[in-house]
Amino acid sequence: MSKSKFVIDKLAKLFEQGLISYKDLSTEIINILKSKKEEIIFKLDLPTKEELEVLKKRIENLENNKKGKKKKSRKVKKS
What we know:
single chain; mainly alpha; 80% helix
């Protein structure tokens, strides 16, 4: 209980001094969240949009090549 009272007292002092307004608080929270988001994305090592486009084109080419090979093959009739 004493720890929560300590935190509440500190917050009350900040509000009394007028250091925190609603706008400042909201922009600070948004900045913190953006920073965390960028940190997580960096840790995941996600590919860029250009890299994804190149990979999509490669996959399409491979699929087209496989379809073309299947069409060219002939079926042999059993006697």
